[in-house]
Amino acid sequence: MSAPNKDFSVAIVGGGLVGALNAVYFAARGWNVTVFELREDIRTLKQAGGRSINLALSKRGISALDGADAGAGLFETLIPMSGRMIHIGGKQSSQNYGYFGEAINSVDRKLVNEHLLNKLQKMPNVTIKFLHELLSIDYEKKILNFKKSDGTVYKAQADLIIGADGSYSRVRRELMRVTRMNFSQEYIEHGYVELNMPPSEKGEYQMDPGHLHIWPRQTFMMIALPNIDKSFTMTLFMPWKNFDAIKTPQDLLGFFEDKFADSIPLIGRELLVKDYFKNPKGSLVSIKCKPYHYKSSCLIIGDAAHAMVPFYGQGMNCGFEDCLVLDEILTKHIGKPGTASSTKPTAEALGKAFEEYSATRNADAEAMCDLAMYNYVEMRSSVTKLSYKLKKSFEGFLHRLFPTSVIPLYTMVSFSRIPYSKALSISKKRGQWYDFFGRVAVYGTVVTALGVGAAVGLRNGGLKYVHGFMCRK
Amino acid sequence: MSAPNKDFSVAIVGGGLVGALNAVYFAARGWNVTVFELREDIRTLKQAGGRSINLALSKRGISALDGADAGAGLFETLIPMSGRMIHIGGKQSSQNYGYFGEAINSVDRKLVNEHLLNKLQKMPNVTIKFLHELLSIDYEKKILNFKKSDGTVYKAQADLIIGADGSYSRVRRELMRVTRMNFSQEYIEHGYVELNMPPSEKGEYQMDPGHLHIWPRQTFMMIALPNIDKSFTMTLFMPWKNFDAIKTPQDLLGFFEDKFADSIPLIGRELLVKDYFKNPKGSLVSIKCKPYHYKSSCLIIGDAAHAMVPFYGQGMNCGFEDCLVLDEILTKHIGKPGTASSTKPTAEALGKAFEEYSATRNADAEAMCDLAMYNYVEMRSSVTKLSYKLKKSFEGFLHRLFPTSVIPLYTMVSFSRIPYSKALSISKKRGQWYDFFGRVAVYGTVVTALGVGAAVGLRNGGLKYVHGFMCRK
């Protein structure tokens, strides 16, 4: 059992993206931080298993990295994608994400994680312990029980416990034993598999790396994001029943020839078959819960608090922003890093900070979970429709005219730090206005047509009839 | 480790109400049934802790007990309650539940459980093991690991595992590891505490035992159900913040004098204070999940599958009906008890039966969870409103005229076996008709009034004006 520290001690369960970034923030407050990670050190692995290979980093994630002064050395590896490239019928058409050249950025998940772990390792008040599986938490005594890789139990004591241990969080499970936590998990009917499009023989990208490529096919879709080695990582999302129907390489090639013909020569038949059958098929879950904390003892962040489907590219960004928002709220309640009240915070002040975080962040995270769910329909289907393109053009026109007052939803989510819940409600309200104007336009047309019709009718006989009726006497 | 049995073996986790009744059904199929219960034998306890003392048994529960031939000896203890007795301003007014003398029945939870355990103990192919805490399940090997009271691990093997282990089901938790289970749990903002109203000095009921008594107070309420010892068990439901505000006996008595004055002399000040501060305060949770099964290996029933708030008195009834519905579906897929196909069912037939059960029962159980949530508003608030009473009278009038075609919602839920989901959808549709007729009545009145007004107006000058205009030339 680690000796209780005179300093303020924090146990962060989970050394993935969010846990590692949060450790940087907490270490900057002078706290004695220990990160416990279930898996082995990702830096010793060739490729992390069972997780998506690349991610889209946008405004919120960048702001959070900046806030922890953790961007340098990482930002240089980003590949900006300024829009979607829609693949239909062998043709490609581009749709910009922003209206002023904004881009989201393809980045390697493993590289981000390694970058943050490297940064942590240089901080004197941070310890990282790999291969520590959380078994249970005693919240009253603030003791965490871990199983080490040799099977022995390791007990750790901490003033504060952070759960950054992902969708299937053990910290959350333990939290549910001591709080009345509302919780929901919803699997969508779609799974995914990752494929690879290698560089060309000349070592170049085989498609434009400045776009996120989408093959929208209504009920399913494939996407591709560029990697720095000039390859693309492609993800095929489709209902489980479609996966079940593909049993042989012939099934697979037939399916691709029918649906994604233009991608076959770029991927190569052999690699396509190999990757499809070798790579794990992942499920997609949306998780919401409330509250995120227990007194001043524990707080969950990232996927542990709000797992979302990946269709808005906000999972990492939202998790990183959690760390930034938490830091902002902590500063409000216990003061800036470096002050005495921050270095050794009182339980009362921490409790209040967590209460505020839990309440405000929950609304935002759940809004983002919903937006991510809606965006699946947009990506695989709406983007192909004229009404969608017209609405987007109209909104873009207004946005260019009034850049700060009419901001498209995608821009609010990906290129601003407007709280997710506010972005969602603005967008909903705007949708009602569009509907209203649309209806006014239709009604106006109908009423005008009727008016003209009536006038013509009246002139051609109606007046005579009325006159005859009225003037009979 | 228990030796694999040549017979078809079933492990039922949970020896509460639903687990015990289901064991009776399964034993009747000749299966080798072992019931594992976490707690000690309820028959050795004076009072089971932390659970409601009495429950309302109605049609579905009675049918399920009848279906297992498990009613005799229990039905004699039932206390029929034909309606609600509403306590407002010190006065009582009765509202019947049914329109043909139907009643729900107050029954002692402990007595029901003991009755079923006694019945099980007489069946040769049933074993009951108390103080067995489920640790984990290996679904592929069909092995259950239990911790016994002496701390040792007990391994059991079974062809089929039934989870009847309540709201915080371990079987469900293990099921979530092998299935993509959608799951939600929602705590309501209200807690409850049980109180006791003893018999009078003469040993009689102090209120009418033929009613379920309610003190509706809009945001909270108290209810009372009669017990066979002539006492009433009262349950006070209110927001947690109200519980938090009552810190002293003076706070409690002040609150009761203000809100439930008529109950104080019947309970007695001393007992009220004693019970309120001694008895545990319980939370109320609504749990939904899907699917309920894993292949032919495992199925969850009762609260483990669908915990509901207690405001429709359907928790036990729905759980009991689970057993009956499951038996009906099993008979459809594997044959009647006694047939060879039922005694030793194939995995394929069982799997299909569970798939059907999971799909149909889920819709019904979730409908019931929703109905239970709606009924909280009805019980604590709607029952006091004129519009509610008018609607109820009107519906009762129609029901008396057309007893089989217009059935009030409460009657469908409590006095019929119409599937819950159907009852809910019929009731929703009917609500739309009521709204429609209401609107037609309002519109009719308005249009008539406008018509009369226009006719009068036209007669008093309008015609002259039109005539002047038309005949000017």
Automatic annotation (TrEMBL), chains A, B:
Chain ranges passing through the membrane: 436-458
GO CC annotations on file: mitochondrial outer membrane
Cofactor: FAD
Organism field: Chytriomyces confervae
GO terms for biological process, alphabetical: 'de novo' NAD+ biosynthetic process from L-tryptophan; anthranilate metabolic process; kynurenine metabolic process; L-tryptophan catabolic process; quinolinate biosynthetic process
Domain FAD-binding: 8-335
Lineage of origin: Eukaryota, Fungi, Fungi incertae sedis, Chytridiomycota, Chytridiomycota incertae sedis
Family of this protein: Belongs to the aromatic-ring hydroxylase family. KMO subfamily.
Keywords: FAD, Flavoprotein, Membrane, Mitochondrion, Mitochondrion outer membrane, Monooxygenase, NADP, Oxidoreductase, Pyridine nucleotide biosynthesis, Transmembrane, Transmembrane helix
Function: Catalyzes the hydroxylation of L-kynurenine (L-Kyn) to form 3-hydroxy-L-kynurenine (L-3OHKyn). Required for synthesis of quinolinic acid.
Gene that encodes it: BNA4
Broadest EC class assigned to this enzyme: oxidoreductase
HAMAP family: Kynurenine_monooxygenase (MF_01971)
Record-given protein name: Kynurenine 3-monooxygenase
GO molecular-function term, one example from the UniProt record: kynurenine 3-monooxygenase activity
